[in-house]
Every structure is written in C-alpha cells, then in structure tokens.
Fold each of these.
Amino acid sequence: MSLPPARTLPETDRTRLLRRRQRGSHELAEICEVLDAGLVCHVGFVGAHGPCVVPTTYVRVDEAVYLHGAPASRLGRADGQPLCIAVTLLDGLVLARSAMHHSMNYRSVIVYGEAALVTDDREQLRVLAALVDRVMPGRAAQVRPPSPAELAATALLRVALTEASLKRRTGPPVDDPEDLDWPCWAGVVPLVERAEPPVPAPDLRGAWPAPAR
Amino acid sequence: MSLPPARTLPETDRTRLLRRRQRGSHELAEICEVLDAGLVCHVGFVGAHGPCVVPTTYVRVDEAVYLHGAPASRLGRADGQPLCIAVTLLDGLVLARSAMHHSMNYRSVIVYGEAALVTDDREQLRVLAALVDRVMPGRAAQVRPPSPAELAATALLRVALTEASLKRRTGPPVDDPEDLDWPCWAGVVPLVERAEPPVPAPDLRGAWPAPAR
C-alpha cells in the first residue's frame, strides 16, 4: 500500500504524548508504516456495560483504517461511534540489570476517530481486496471474488487517519550508572514474527504452488 | 506460573459469546494458558474524551491479571475504574479459495473487571518479580531488586479473573463446497513469534552468559 504524502498530524487532547515524548511521533508516513506492518488491531469502544476491546483484522488504505464485520456484530454496528484503534508490534525484550528498568522494544500506533459505514460499492470492493492482499500480496486476484450476497453480509467501516500518534522504544536497556557492575547479563532479545511452512488444506485439489510469505 | 484449579467462569452480559459460540470457552485454566503465553495486553477504558486503548505488559498471578504504570499515568490512576483487557495471540493466516472465507487462526482472551490498586508491599514485590520472570524465567532472582523509591514510583493494579472469556480459531480454511475446484492454493500459513540471538548492551561489563528464550 503506497504511503500518503509526508504530513504531520495535529496534536489533540487525545493524541498529545504525555509521557516520554521523545518516543513519540505524529508523522503520518511513520504512522502508516506501523499500521501496514501489523496484522491485528485492538478496537476500543464504549459498550452498554462500559469499555470494550475487540481484536480484529484491518487494512490501511490511503488516509484511513478500515475494519469489517458481520452487520449484526458489535463492530458491524459501530457506524457513527467513537473508536480507539491500537496496533502494537513487539520488537524485543529489554533486559536491564535492575528489575525496574526492564522494558520492551515496540512500535505502537493509536488512532482515534468515528467509524463511518462504507456505502460505496467500489470502495467496499477495493478495500476488501486490499484486506486479502495485505495478508498475502497478489492473492485477491487469485481467489473467488465476493458475491453480492457476501458483500451485503459484510459491514465495512472507515476511520479517517486524522487523529493518531505513534510511540516506539528501540535500543539497549538504560540502567542507572551505579547498577552497571551488577553481576548479570543485560541487553535485548529481539522478537520476530515468522511464517512457518504453509500447511495445505486437507481438501486441496490440484498442485497449486503454496504462497511464500 | 501455576494454573488455578479447574473452574468454569460464569457467563455474564459482557462475556456471553454472541457469535460463533463453538469457538469460545469460559474455562479458567484455558483462559490462564492464553494469558500466560502472551507478553502484551491491550487495556480498554473510558477516558475523558471517550474510549481509550493502551498496550502494556502484564502478568497473570493466581486468579488475577496485574498491570503497572507510573502513578501519574492513565493506567497508574485507574484504581476503581472498569477496564477491558484483551490478549491476542496470532497463530496463522487462513487462506481460503474465496476472498470472504479468509481468516486468521488465533487465541484471544477478554477480561472485564475493576482495577484495584495493590497496597500490600509483599504482593507488590511478588507480582513485580513475576513480571520480570515471565519475560525471562529465573531473571528476577538475578537482577538488582526494586528499591523503596522505585516501588513507590510504581502503581500496581489488580484485575480479578472473575469475568473473562476465550475465543480461538484453529484448523484449515472452510470453503463453500462449490468453491473447492477454484484454481488456487488453500491452507494455513502458521505464524510464530521467535526470539533472535540476544544483543548484549553496549555497556555490558563481564562475560555473563546471555539468556536463552
């Protein structure tokens, strides 16, 4: 997915970075890079009984994040509701000499906005194809496209990228000077999400090549 | 962390599984296994400007989830607030013959509850040690323990595991019978989070053995 033009999003009461500001950014391109690297987001909303969080897939297209769900699901009925969308990538375990300076290396984006139901058929088709392609590039063109009944059974919601922020931590542990001689290892254990060899469906017919990710 | 005794949590208005009930569970031991396998949770709460989601580390000890933060942070000030905590483990990409049957294999736990500030010093020490040990087993005993000033600068919050549910998807794609001859590969691409070789801190003194994870 191509990145939008370089632009700094305005800070708002919700996206002002209150703590460790040096770890933050409001650059739209950096925010989009994190959104494009994640596969799952956590969507926060206020339900009938208080705060709710739902994990779900998403895709970023142009300057919006898209969510989808069955029209009767809580997300599918979120048209007009304020949402908070979080995408978090865990990059490493930060092991310091002191218990309290242990940390994680991460990249995290928070998006605030109102969900808007997508009613334009072409936008819906384009975004659903992007959702498939993001999981496996090029796949949307290979699979059986959505039928009118399937499209009607899918609520697609747009949240514009107008109010968002990024936070990240990188690099080694930061210990207090008096702890540097403490007798233990210190450093970072990098974490990566890897694809293992694909497992064909038991009912696969034909010798189609397995995808590489 | 040892698992609590086998017990089924009661279904409530918030944890009743509304969709795809066959993917769900309220078994406490299964819920704890997912909580113990994750490293990051997403905490939902209602802020001054609507729904908020914060990614953070956590640990499950006995029948509670613990979060921590600076006393002035939004989580650190959450004593008495209703929270929704989500832990999601992504296990695989499910590639079907039709766009609409694409899915993810995952394990996901949602916990609802009120945050309670931990005021007992021994509970605070024990849980902070568990937080370090979970990232790297045995490490809490090796590192410089928290000082009284550090403990005072750490708000620890307990959310009891009384209202929680699990959802998971496993296995191959489920395509419509009429799509089984569609000319493309179908199956699952398993995803795993792996630790890469540890990177020592640039200021590491002494030849301490690097941890194995």
Amino acid sequence: MNDDKYKKIVKSIRNFCDERDWSQFHDPKNLAISLNLEASEVLELFQWTLDNKINPEKENEIASELADVLYWLIMLSNHYNIDLLGALEDKMKINAKKYPIKKAKGISKKYTDL
Amino acid sequence: MNDDKYKKIVKSIRNFCDERDWSQFHDPKNLAISLNLEASEVLELFQWTLDNKINPEKENEIASELADVLYWLIMLSNHYNIDLLGALEDKMKINAKKYPIKKAKGISKKYTDL
Amino acid sequence: MNDDKYKKIVKSIRNFCDERDWSQFHDPKNLAISLNLEASEVLELFQWTLDNKINPEKENEIASELADVLYWLIMLSNHYNIDLLGALEDKMKINAKKYPIKKAKGISKKYTDL
Amino acid sequence: MNDDKYKKIVKSIRNFCDERDWSQFHDPKNLAISLNLEASEVLELFQWTLDNKINPEKENEIASELADVLYWLIMLSNHYNIDLLGALEDKMKINAKKYPIKKAKGISKKYTDL
C-alpha cells in the first residue's frame, strides 16, 4: 500500500534531519521553543492591522509561515512517536462532546462557561 | 477516489465549525492568536525542567497539546484556502537548498551564517 | 517632588507616541500582540543552546530585547492607567502567601501542587 | 539615600527567591520560557474579542497579568545584572533616531520601510 501525502512528508522530514546529523540539537525543549518562535512569525503578519486581516503586503507569506509551524509540530510528534493526525481525530471527538451544537451554536465561550 | 486521512480531518474541522456557526468569531487575527496560545501550552509542558525533557508528570498531555496546535493551523489554512501539506513540501525543497548536507552537517547555525 | 526614574520613562514613552500620533494604531489587542512578539525575541536568544545559557554570540542583545518587552508592558499599563509597579508589589504579597518559605523551599512546583 | 520604588521591588524579588532557594531552577532559558508564558496570558485576555478591546469579563485581570510579565523581566535582568530601566532609556534614544517625528508621524511602518 502506498503512503499518503502526510506520511510521506513526515518521513521526508526525518530523512532531512538524519542526513544533516541534527538530532543532537533537537532535544524536545528546543523543538517546543522553535514551535513557539514560528507561531510568533504567523502572528507578526497581523501586527498593527486594525481590521483583523493580515497585513496585505504580507499575505503571500502566510502559507510559508504556516508550513514552518507544521514542520516543528511534526518534529515534536516524531520525537515522541505521536500519531499527530490520530491525536487530532481524538481531540475532535472530545470537542464534539464539550461543545454540543445546541449549547455552543453562535457562542464563543469556553466549554467550562457554556 | 477516497480522501486520505489528512483531507478527512480538514473537512471534519470545517463541518464542526459550520455546525456551531463559529465562523463569525474566526477572523484570521483571532485564529493566529489561538495558534500562539496553544503553542504556549506545548512550551508550558517543559517549564522548569532542567534536563530539557518534558515534565514527566505531563508527558501524557503532549499528544493532545500538539493536536490543539494543528487544529488552529488547519483553521488558518482553511481560511486562506492554503494547501498546508503542499506548502510544507515546497518549504522542504527550499530548506534542502538553504542547508546543503555538506555545509550543514552537524551544525545548528542559521543558513545565513553557514 | 521629583519623579523617580521609572515615572520619567513612563512619561517619555507617552510623549514619544503622542508626538508621532501613533495612538490610533495602539488598540490594546495590538499592544498585547507586540508584547508577545518581543517576548519571543528574548526566547530566540536561547534557541538551540544545549546548556540552557544564552547563545554567546547573542549575549550583547539581551538588555535591548528585555527593554523592548518593558516598552510594551508600559504601553499597556498606560492604556489602562495601571500602576505597574504597584501591581507587582501587590502580586509579591500574594506570592508570599501562595508560596510560604517552609513549603516552597527548594521546590519548583506550582502552589496548587505544593 | 533612599531607593526608589523600582529598586525596592527588584530587591524584594531577589530576596523572595533567595529565601526559597529557587535559583537552582532559574537558569535563564527557563526564565525566558516563563516570560513568554506570562506574555501569552496577557494575550489570552483578548482572545475571541472582535473589537480589539479586552474581554470585559477579564478586564480586572489585566493588572495582575502585566505584573507577572514584569516579574520575569526583572528576574532575567537580575540574572544578567542588567539595569533594565537604563536599557529602556537607551532604547528610547535609539527609537527617537529611527523614527523621526517628520517621517513617522501617523505611520505604523517599521523604520526600515519608512
């Protein structure tokens, strides 16, 4: 059976780092820091905007910045042998219970305040 | 043709929000803020550790926290109609050029300092 | 009576922005985003270090980066007319109760887990 | 000569940690992580708001959250023997040159784009 696109990319990231002998730097605390730094770069695209939209001069950068966040997310998942997509599927089931449509429709409150 | 696992989850997230009429809150600036808040929760698992490993009492939380980050990453990708996996594939090609194995092997410097 | 150094700097920041007519951009959400972006730049100085120390090539940047965080902290305090030093004094009194020396000595746990 | 309010609080924080023997946990990387986590808690007060104002149910929390950020800022300054207020004074002089009133008035661009 063929790997799907997500599995292929997980493998290619693992190979990329192995070939460069970078695992020595990749203790998980550093991976978590990098994840945060890249998430900040996404946020930076919205700095000083007044309409809650992305800075129009920076709209072409969003795909690349989101990809950077996913990169570190996969690195952390690889480190802990986590099935990231499976974890999100599990989470969506939990969220469906926490936020039943009847209660949560049109409301932005946290489930504990619903 | 069948959707693969990643596409299925992207669709299920879209449905989840549509059913709850949440798109009104999901301006992209708020999505970027949520992405950062969830990335912080990943980092929090490493707070005060001295060995760069995750706090052992919190190791069982990492999969769920990584899933939360992926959730907002997919929400932002959906908002901008970005093919997130494709963007990461593109990025990996760029990274391979920025960090040639010969130059980057065993070195943690940024490509501009290699 | 003369203003002390902290009050002087709070005033000078207010003047700096008034002269540039920047208050129109300084809605508090944007200030909070800038606070986070500057805090990230502090964290970036520690990226990839394995000994928990600052990257030695970047040690001369730390004072400037910390000053940037304080700048946004004062901007937010000015916006809400908060006496920031007074708020920290109040917090220290609360912390002294949350973390009594007897219980907290040599322990890094959160007060709820002490 | 009497210490001013800022110096008093810097000293009281130093004493607070010494009495609890907490310096062992306070390697600077952990301090920088805590600074970021507290900055996130400030940002969280603005999550899901559509008018760029603070969530009104959380307005009474802002002073306390800003104080938490200042706490870690002072901890980092203490660690590196940095005169934080002096560093900000220096920064303000640099900013005055980077953003001359004539050029920067009413414009939110970064100085490199002015």
